[in-house]
Amino acid sequence: TLKLNPESCQKAPINYIIGGLWQKVGLVLDCSKSELIKNYLINRFDTFAEQNVNGTQYFRVAVPITDTIIENHIAGKITIGAYSTSKEGTCKWICFDVDAHRKKDDTEEDVIQKEIKAEDDLQNLTSFLDRMQLRYLVESSGSPHSYHVWLFIKEVEVEKAYYFANAIAKEAGFDGEVNPKQRTWNKNNQYGNLVKLPFALHRKHNVFSSIHGWEGETMDIAVYDISDIEIPKIRKNRSRSVKPVNVKLNGVRPCILAALEKDLSGDQGNKMRVAIVREFYNFGMTDKEQLIDLFKGQADFDHGKTEYHVTKIIEREFNVWPRETLLERCPKYMTCENCDRFDCKEA
């Protein structure tokens, strides 16, 4: 049961993010670490993921989450992660992932630039949330210059959590990972994605994650009710038996070509890579090796990984992304105001 602070039970001014909508917020007083995990972070209790002993990967454990498992996690005996979606397709939280993870072939300059970008991303995101008067928690997640920024919501359909989270990311100019990553829930994607729970021992770095400002046994947290959000209708996927035909576009668009000359990193960069493959494939580049070669200029290019993702993208028949989808998913790469492709703007 939420213990509501009268001063906080006002409608929070987040209308700038989601149109004219104003949402209710409740303040949970004196929330302990175990209560935070149990009541506001675990979406399903029938299973969880555990980090292996060297901290390199997770494996799913098909047993219920108990109070003992939670306490062992906080004590550092095990490190667990929770899934973003319940068995009913609902979600209790939003998590923005800011990281500066080092890759094995990174130079020292690469690492420095990643660290600077991570700190800038954190500052820009939290400054935006402060301006919107949204209360959040920042967690140092255990890796250097890596953070989770948590927003807690009253349990709601995952598509509403997804829409709200991405609305914030778009307005804040945040291009890191946004959780939940799944727009919808179905039997083929019933777990959603995995996020390591706070207060964990990162077994690779042997460092506990920590919530900024959590100095005692408890902390006050805010829980937002976003149940009244109205999600814009989206187009249904075309039948897989219908071959995509781009009758309204006259060839690959300038924004797609220009993106190939840019650094396609972060969440928006990954989405732009999908858009690039779909665009070139639909306009006649059906040779897989040619599609792979499009990304040779990227700093993180790996032939095997690129081949895997290209194969996944082209194995189903999908059309190119319309302008509205590009603006929603990868706005940092879009320069529509300077583009004279009226066939795209009118499509």
Number of strands: 14
Secondary-structure-based class equals alpha+beta
Query: What general form does the structure show?
Result: globular
Roughly how many Å is the radius of gyration?
21 Å
End-to-end Cα distance: 49 Å
Instruction: Count the domains.
Output: 2
Domain TOTE conflict system primase: 61-206
Organism: Methanolobus profundi
Pfam family, one: AEP-TOTE
Protein name: TOTE conflict system primase domain-containing protein
Give structural notes.
This protein is α+β, with helices and mostly antiparallel strands and 347 residues long. It has 2 domains: 6-225, DNA primase, PRIM domain (Alpha-Beta Complex), CATH 3.90.920; 254-346, no CATH class. The protein is 31% helix and 20% strand. It contains 10 helices and 14 strands. The chain has helices at 33-40, 67-75, 108-131, 158-172, 254-259, 266-282, 288-293, 303-314, 323-329, 342-346, and strands spanning 11-12, 23-32, 48-51, 58-61, 80-83, 90-98, 137-140, 147-157, 177-179, 194-196, 201-202, 207-208, 210-211, 218-225. The strands form 3 sheets. Strands 1, 2, 6, 7, 8, 9, 13 and 14 form an 8-stranded mixed sheet that branches. A hairpin with a 4-residue loop joins strand 11 and strand 12 (207-208). Helix 1 (33-40) packs across helix 2 (67-75) and helix 3 (108-131) packs across helix 4. The protein is globular. The termini are far apart. The model is unreliable at 1-13, 16-23 and 235-247 (pLDDT under 50). This is TOTE conflict system primase domain-containing protein. InterPro entries: HP0184-like_sf, TOTE_primase. Residues 61-206 form the TOTE conflict system primase domain.
